[in-house]
């Protein structure tokens, strides 16, 4: 058995200027929102930052100063507001691999906390909390943006527009023998509902580069799929205002050598974003 946790929100919701990256490496989401769109508090998780290719450029290399911050999308163009905190300066790092190393030297993932938004409500460009690069230590940088490769889950209602109606998705394999583990599959539908007409990208991800580890010895893991697509590629759906669209969540098991008898379990995340 493993349980796939759902995190209500509309993921990476920069509707105007931002689209989901072709290769995501930084995963974050909002688990809870309070208040109203103009005055909101978000409980967030920055789940992981996967290794970067050696030649991916740092967008703020050569600036007079560049801070990596934990922040939220404050304006419709994707620029940040007041930083939760500033992590490290990286203007001397030519590549994102160096930026990641600098952040990893002072932070441990997952990073959890709360962020506050006080300002204009965002509709087509929904709020999210993630890792930003910006020229000011405390935030409020007009040139600040989410780091490239960010998959940044947007806020659920009452502040945001969309949510997953189910609680935890329990994909239960029951009793299964070792010879039947490889490629064993289980599936279940979830339902996405929005209070605005929205085009939504649904993402499913595990903690190990997208996979869900099921044994600490790495002998068993699960790959995730949404409507038949790899989980981190995701499924794009069009949700009408106050409507609901189903999405199939599937897990497929894979083995790595012999698997000892006994219980197996793990968890992943479902994130909503905008394509």
From TrEMBL:
Tell me which residues make up the Fimbrial adhesin MrpH N-terminal domain: 24-160
Keywords noted in UniProt: Signal
Record's keyword annotation contains Signal: yes
Q: What is one process in the GO biological process aspect for this record?
A: cell adhesion
Leader sequence range is 1-24
Q: Where is the Fimbrial adhesin MrpH C-terminal domain?
A: 162-275
**Pfam families referenced in this protein's UniProt entry, alphabetically:** MrpH_C (PF24223), MrpH_N (PF24222)
CDD domains recorded for this chain?
MrpH-like
Asked if the record carries the keyword Transferase, the reply is no
Which GO cellular component terms, listed alphabetically, does the Swiss-Prot or TrEMBL entry include?
pilus
Protein name per the record? MrfJ family protein
């Amino acid at each position: 058995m493993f349980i796939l946790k759902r995190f209500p929100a509309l993921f990476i919701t920069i509707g105007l200027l931002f689209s989901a990256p072709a290769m995501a490496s930084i995963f974050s989401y909002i688990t809870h929102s309070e208040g109203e769109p103009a005055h909101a508090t978000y409980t967030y998780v920055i789940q992981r930052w996967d290794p970067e290719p050696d030649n991916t450029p740092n967008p703020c290399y050569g600036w007079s100063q560049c801070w990596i911050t934990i922040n939220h999308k404050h304006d419709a163009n994707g620029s940040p507001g007041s930083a939760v905190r500033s992590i490290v300066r990286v203007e001397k790092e030519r590549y994102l691999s160096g930026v990641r190393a600098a952040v990893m030297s002072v932070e441990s993932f997952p990073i959890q906390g709360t962020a506050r938004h006080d300002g204009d409500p965002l509709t087509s460009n929904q709020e999210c909390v993630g890792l930003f690069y910006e020229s000011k230590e405390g935030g409020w940088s007009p040139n600040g943006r989410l780091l490239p490769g960010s998959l940044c889950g947007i806020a659920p209602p009452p502040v945001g527009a969309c949510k997953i109606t189910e609680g935890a998705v329990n994909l239960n394999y029951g009793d299964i023998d070792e010879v039947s583990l490889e490629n064993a599959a289980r599936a279940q539908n979830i339902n996405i509902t929005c209070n605005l007409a929205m085009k939504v990208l649904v993402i499913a991800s595990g903690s190990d580069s997208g996979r869900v580890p099921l044994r600490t010895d790495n002998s068993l893991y699960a790959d995730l799929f949404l409507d038949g697509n790899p989980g981190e590629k995701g499924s794009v759906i069009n949700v009408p205002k106050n409507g609901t669209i189903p999405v199939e969540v599937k897990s497929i098991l894979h083995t790595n050598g012999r698997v000892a008898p006994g219980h197996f379990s793990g968890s992943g995340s479902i994130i909503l974003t905008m394509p």
